[in-house]
Amino acid sequence: MAEIVLETRSVSRSFGAMPAVDGVDLTVRAGEVVAVMGPSGSGKSTLLHLVAGLLRPDSGEVWFDGTRLDNQPEHARARTRLRHMGFVFQFGDLVPELTVVENVELPLRLLGTARASARARALEMLDRFGIAEQADRRLSEVSGGQAQRAAVARALVHQPAVVLADEPTGSLDTLTGELVLEELVGAAAERGTAVVLVTHELRVASYADRDVLVRDGRIVADPVGAVPS
Ligand SMILES: Nc1ncnc2c1ncn2[C@@H]1O[C@H](COP(=O)(O)OP(=O)(O)OP(=O)(O)O)[C@@H](O)[C@H]1O
After folding, report:
1. Closest atom, ligand 1, to C-alpha of 43
2. d(CA 168, CA 125)
3. C-beta separation of 204 from 181 below 8 A
4. Which of 90, 138, 156, 208 has a Cα at 20 to 30 A from 184?
5. How far apart (Å, rounded) are the C-alpha atoms in residues 160 and 193?
6. 16: how many CB neighbours lie within 10 A of its CB?
7. Are residues 94 and 139 in contact, defined by beta-carbon separation less than 8 angstroms?
8. Digit-coded pLDDT (tens) for 13-66
9. 104: exposed, middle or buried (C-beta count within 10 Å: 0-12, 13-18, 19+)?
10. 4-184+193-221: what fold?
């Protein structure tokens, strides 16, 4: 069985008195595609932010690749995120002032890849996602669906160990959504990328190896996990 890449151990996080995530144990292995489903407000995005080390848990632990992440200082967590993780978040952190290709090559540039090879790799990704013609347009000047494809291209460009995606096909038509899902599933199959995707759509979840159901901040169904009663 492939090694465990991501793990939460009894992780909890509240906002005020409200627990958004409540004692969650989740394990994701290399090459696994896990869909996280559940009603609006059930804690899916908060769980993703905890796994990314963007939010710190009130209690419990988050582990990445055999190392505890949640108790590291922010700069160390940021380094792990940049080097080993790719993100597709709902309120994307793409830079509107940069062009599409500049956004996609950004992780590579931040990791020290030379300008020419970062550009070549980013253009290759744009081609795969059918947005090569938008390469030199500012992100603020492309459609929501094109920006979403750029976000997924950027999440994969540096071949991360993990991709965390919050509704990665939310603003895409069915065909383009399938293209994006096939790229994510392809990264898992070819490079052992672990993919965690939050979705409301059964069609999207059907691409996953495993569906985890979250309700009121707790995992209520997980085919491989111990589900608390
Ligand atoms: N930064 C925050 N400050 C205060 N409350 C928050 C914050 N983030 C999330 N919450 C609350 O935590 C709970 C879980 O929210 P979360 O966004 O994780 O749910 P979700 O399942 O991702 O919802 P959706 O499907 O609508 O995106 C909600 O009650 C939400 O209002």
Report:
1. 18
2. 16
3. yes
4. 138
5. 7
6. 6
7. yes
8. 999 988 999 999 999 999 999 999 999 999 999 999 999 999 999 999 999 999
9. buried
10. Rossmann fold (3.40.50)
Beta-bridge mates of residue 194: 162
Q: Tokens at residue 15, please?
A: 């906002």
Distance 159 CA to ligand 1 centre (A): 29
- Distance between CA 43 and CA 57 in Å, rounded? 13
Domain boundary assignment for the chain: 4-184+193-221
Residue 96 in tokens:
């509107």
How far, in Å, from the CA of 62 to the mean position of ligand 1? 19
Residue 20 CA, ligand 1 centroid: distance in Å: 6
**Amino acid (1-letter code) at residue 84:** H
The answer to whether 6 and 27 have CB atoms below 8 angstroms apart is yes
Instruction: Give the distance (Å) from ligand 1 centre to CA of residue 44.
Output: 8
The structure tokens listed for 229 are 């009663």
Q: What is the pTM of this model?
A: 0.92
The set of residues, in sequence order, having a beta carbon less than 8 Å from that of 107 and lying 6+ positions away, is 82, 86, 154, 157, 158
Tokens describing residue 197: 């995707």
The residue whose C-alpha atom lies closest to atom 18 belonging to ligand 1 is 43
Q: Is 16 helix (H, G, I), strand (E, B) or coil?
A: coil
Pairing status of strand 4-15 against strand 18-29: antiparallel
pLDDT in tens, 66-93: 999 999 999 999 999 999 999 998 666 7
Q: Which residues line ligand 1 (CB under 6 A)?
A: 15, 18, 20, 38, 40-46
- Is the sign of the CA dihedral 108, 114, 119, 124 positive or negative? negative
